[in-house]
Amino acid sequence: MRILFITATRLGDAVLSTGLLDHLIRTRPDARFTVACGPVAAGLFERMPRLERLIVMTKRRHDRHWLDLWRVCVGQRWDMVIDLRGSMTGYFLRARTRRIMRGGRRSGARVAHVGEVLGLNPPPMPVVWTDEADRAVACDVLGDGPVIAFGPTANWEGKVWPAERFVALWHVLHRAFPHHRLAVLYGPGKTERAMAAPLLDIEGAIDAGGRFSPAQTAAMLERCDLFVGNDSGLMHLAAAAGTPTLGLFGPSRASEYAPSGRRTAWVVAPGPDGEAPIAGLDIEVVAEEALVLLGASRAEAAA
């Protein structure tokens, strides 16, 4: 059985699609998978079980990347095509079954929209796939002892909680849990590093960003007792890794993109839904939720 799975360009949306893939892996043990995604998300699927091919789609003018994908896939007869991008590509491939998710914005949790593609309610939760090499990198970077991770960046400046608030939050958490160290996670590129720079200046901070694959980052997150970060791909990756995750929301909608996982929470800046300035989010509110999550995480580890 061969399944073509067309998923997102952005890391966060790609993470949210992993639960559906995991469901297919568990329920169709004879299936082999071809995954098509954007370059940023590609590393998320490299360790996926029964991955036959990974197609990295680079956007081209006039949507010609969809023609590129069709050319690569048209020679195969597919048992199932799942298209979470809402493109027309799946309709022009030979397939026994097609499941095309409607494109565009709509209300409700994005992870629920993904589950609806196969009629799954509740939707399957996102997962991460790592291997021993990824875990060895995580061990080397983080070392021994308990770690708290911060994700102070995002793909849009409007979603970024001010860096000085993250610094102040760290001092609050460190007073309560003095044996924890801080790991700072961020994406590749000078812009992301600049956003993270004030936190990297904190004494003893671990630089855990910029140069790692999604799988290596997931392995690091699996070792952390808490992740606090803006609405971003890193936030979704942390939740999928099972890390207690606190998402920070302002002008993006928590009703659509709240972190999905077993141990997650989120705080929303005061103001109109999806329009609130994130600078209005108080340190005290974030710290209170973070301490609850961290305390529960430590209690669970000690049990």
What does it look like?
It is a single chain. The chain has 303 residues and is α/β, with parallel strands linked by helices. It folds into two domains: 2-116, Glycogen Phosphorylase B (Rossmann fold); 132-302, 3-Layer(aba) Sandwich (Rossmann fold), CATH 3.40.50.2000. 37% of the residues lie in helices and 18% in strands. The protein contains ten helices and eleven strands. It has helices at residues 11-27, 64-73, 110-116, 132-142, 163-176, 190-200, 214-222, 233-240, 254-257, 283-302; strands at residues 2-6, 32-37, 51-56, 78-83, 95-100, 147-151, 181-184, 206-207, 226-230, 245-249, 264-268. Strands 8-7-6-9-10-11 form a six-stranded parallel beta sheet, sandwiched between helices. The chain has a five-stranded parallel beta sheet with strand order 3-2-1-4-5, with no helix packed on it. Strand 1 (2-6), helix 1 and strand 2 (32-37) form a beta-alpha-beta unit. Helix 5 (163-176) crosses helix 6 and helix 5 packs across helix 10 (283-302). The longest helix is centred in the C-terminal third of the chain and has 20 residues, at 283-302. The protein is globular and about 60 Å long. The protein starts with a strand and ends with a helix. The relative contact order is 0.13. The mean pLDDT is 95.
